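thread: overnight batch results

M.L. [08:02]
morning all. the overnight job finished for the chain we discussed friday. pasting input first so we're all looking at the same thing
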Amino acid sequence: MIRLIKITIFIIVILSINVGEKKVLFADNSLKEIKGIVVNSTTGQPIAETTITLYIEQLDKDSEVFYTTTDIAGAFVFESIEIQEDALYWLSIFYEGIGYTELFDVISDNKNLVLQVYDTTTSDESISIYNSSILFSDVDHLNRELSIIEMVTLQNTDNLTYIQGSGPMDLLRFGLPEGATDLIIDTEIANADWVQIDKGFALLASVKPGKHELMYAYKIPYSGSSTSFVKNWRYGSNNLRIVIPENLFQVVTNITDDSELINLEDINYEVQEAKNIKRMEKMEVFVLDLPEPTMFELIKERFVTAEYMYVAPISLGLFLLIGLSIFIWKNRNKAYKNRDMQLIDQMIDNLQKDFNQGKISEEKYIKMIKMLEDQKNEALP
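M.L. [08:03]
and the structure it wrote out:
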């Protein structure tokens, strides 16, 4: 989890994602009025006679909660509110079943607060991805697993709050590679939940207009020294960055540009970029030169497993185990090389199709074909 937090901070630095800053308040221990107005920003009309909740939160203390009601003009006031040191102040309102919250600075904002609510829609046409990143964060060569973290800035460009519909397809859906495991999801969207569905997960959330951060992490299995998957950009993406630790393995896609190197804490990372990805566009991802367990690591693994199953004779059992492991390793290695050859041939065919359809430039086509042919020559016995 500590590693995940560090990686998350790293991606934010790379992408320069602006996350909303929570303001720490400075107290003068005085009493103040907190005033404002509630407006339906879809229609421009004030929201009359509705309940507003004020929360005051401090570390190691129970939250303080106050209530008031808007008048006919949508205005509200909380009287005689004590300004407390290191406290966070935020407002909450429910409108048409949707919760809206607003964190504010009680010192500078308390006279002009505007709490916005919106009408709703079940159409996801206004939902898109502003920024997205895919970080290949780690590889476990013994278990043959890739760890991947994706971060997206989801945006609602309408003046309506998106709410999920009643059908299974009327959800915010995000695809995952086949066989993905250990899914972790986090988001700043209030009251959000998620469910795993076929080929990915669905976010159960109401998305108000504006930008919202979402992060999810998972692992995918691989065999041999390569793997591939297809990512479907259901909501498109204005900007994409793929981040790979240098010299760990290679990642090739059909839509990203050439990589550039960045350095963070004395570690080099390759960064590939793409812009203006269309809704429902498919991205083919090929991962090459993945590390594999050595013959001795396989022997050790089999010996550790076997030593609890057999009690005699140890020397003969160990001899047979080593011989069996070498036989399996040689045959498996041959099968994996054949699989790698097939994968490279598939990538070359796909590149040829993309080039013929004008999806990639001639320069990029020639460069990627040469790289794949070099990989193919290395895989030859």
